[in-house]
TrEMBL record:
<dbReference type="GO" id="GO:0030091">
    <property type="term" value="P:protein repair"/>
</dbReference>
<comment type="similarity">
    <text>Belongs to the MsrQ family.</text>
</comment>
<feature type="transmembrane region" description="Helical">
    <location>
        <begin position="169"/>
        <end position="186"/>
    </location>
</feature>
<keyword id="KW-1133">Transmembrane helix</keyword>
<keyword id="KW-0288">FMN</keyword>
<keyword id="KW-0812">Transmembrane</keyword>
<comment type="function">
    <text>Part of the MsrPQ system that repairs oxidized periplasmic proteins containing methionine sulfoxide residues (Met-O), using respiratory chain electrons. Thus protects these proteins from oxidative-stress damage caused by reactive species of oxygen and chlorine generated by the host defense mechanisms. MsrPQ is essential for the maintenance of envelope integrity under bleach stress, rescuing a wide series of structurally unrelated periplasmic proteins from methionine oxidation.</text>
</comment>
<keyword id="KW-0472">Membrane</keyword>
<dbReference type="Pfam" id="PF01794">
    <property type="entry name" value="Ferric_reduct"/>
</dbReference>
<comment type="subunit">
    <text>Heterodimer of a catalytic subunit (MsrP) and a heme-binding subunit (MsrQ).</text>
</comment>
<dbReference type="InterPro" id="IPR013130">
    <property type="entry name" value="Fe3_Rdtase_TM_dom"/>
</dbReference>
<dbReference type="GO" id="GO:0020037">
    <property type="term" value="F:heme binding"/>
</dbReference>
<keyword id="KW-0813">Transport</keyword>
<keyword id="KW-0349">Heme</keyword>
<feature type="domain" description="Ferric oxidoreductase">
    <location>
        <begin position="49"/>
        <end position="178"/>
    </location>
</feature>
<keyword id="KW-1003">Cell membrane</keyword>
<keyword id="KW-0249">Electron transport</keyword>
Length: 231
């Protein structure tokens, strides 16, 4: 059974997930070392780090619904293992990895902009925030992600209790701001933000349907499963 195999080989799954998170950074490093950053190196660095952060944030938000969907799929296909939500608890342990990787790329994105575009000119940075909406949206997204990353440990989950869930619901706001940042930076005629928009719209629509009662809720649909270390 695939579900049972994945659970029993969680360390291998975690390593594969970690490697996937590292791929954009490693690809950039390889291009830096080979002096192959193209005609606009700054644009490439900013786009890769920013897009990676948005993709990883969307993947983080998908963990809770994915757990439910896989449970339903296992039940529908009459699998012997995987029909209970607890059979997929190991997925929750990947969320922290995805979230921290997202924050790392977002931080790298902000650092590259501050260092190579602004030259650490903070007066110019303030002017950019005031005059360009996409800079403000990106800054707000980063400011939201910072406390989420700082409170991602098990000790902080236990310390904050139910307030942890309330705080981490802000991840949806960070995703929306990140997507707006991406759209405002995209030149007319390009469709690159559309896949991210479709994925986030699906996740937001699904959660709205749960909270409105259009879809049946389940124990843990609001992230409650995060309060207990999964086995």
């Amino acid at each position: 059974m695939l579900a049972a195999w994945l659970k029993n080989h969680f360390q291998s799954v975690w390593r594969c997930c970690f490697s996937a998170c590292m791929l954009p950074a490693l690809a950039l490093l390889a291009r830096v070392l080979s002096s192959d950053l193209g005609p606009n190196p700054l644009a490439l660095l900013l786009h890769t780090t920013g897009r990676s952060a948005l993709v990883l944030l969307t993947a983080t938000l998908a963990i809770t619904p994915l757990r439910r969907w896989l449970t339903n799929l296992s039940a529908y296909t009459h699998q012997r293992y995987g029909k209970r939500l607890s059979d997929w608890n190991w997925l929750v342990r990947l969320r922290r990895l995805l979230g921290l990787s997202c924050f790392a790329y977002a931080l790298a994105h902000a650092w590259i902009f501050a260092a190579f575009d602004l030259g650490y000119d903070w007066s110019a940075a303030l002017s950019e925030v005031q005059e360009k909406p996409y800079v403000l949206a990106g800054l707000l997204a980063l400011l939201i992600l910072a406390p989420l990353a700082a409170t991602s440990t098990q000790s902080m989950v236990r310390r904050l209790g139910r307030h942890w869930r309330r705080l981490h619901r802000l991840s949806y706001a960070a995703a929306v701001l990140g997507l707006l940042h991406f759209w405002w930076l995209t030149k007319p005629g390009l469709i690159s933000p559309w896949p991210d928009t479709a994925a986030l719209t699906l996740l937001l629509g699904y959660r709205a349907a749960l909270y409105s009662g259009l879809l049946e809720r389940w124990d843990g649909f609001d992230g409650k499963e995060s309060l207990v270390r999964p086995t």
